[in-house]
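If you are new to this repository, start here. Below is one unmodified record pulled from the training split, so you can see the exact layout before writing a loader.
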Amino acid sequence: MSQPDTQPPSPSESRSQSGNPPLHHPVVDAHLARQATDLQVRIADAITKFAGSMLFVYIHAVGFAVWMLFVEGSPWPTLTLVVSLEAIFLSTFVMIGQNRQAAFQQAKADHDFVEQELELKTNTELTRAIHAMTTELHRRLLAGEVGGSGQSAS
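And here is the target side for that same chain:
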């Protein structure tokens, strides 16, 4: 199974051709693109989706009942083996899904952190520029009051 891509596209890369903002978070777009191209991921997702459905429960309930009642006279040893093997494989798919979800959440958190740091840097620069302009405006107003006192503006 391939390693998840932890470097999502930048906001400018995730914009559509028309320049509209993306419909999804850039990490979601990267995740969906990776999912669409990786056959193993699609298979694991399909199995996990089916195993987490009520149809899965119904099929197993009916299948085990038929097996116990009609197929074998003493179904318990074989049934125990089948159920144990199935539990091993299903727990593996659950762990694969959890690992992928954790990698997805980490990539999203990393992206959000970078974006927030960039926004903080931009806001800090804007605040400094506003402070410099305010200071300069204040200096000019004070200089105008000292040098132009007694004169009226026309």
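Two things worth knowing about this chain: Confidence is low (pLDDT under 50) at residues 1-6, 11-16. Residues 26-113 form one domain.
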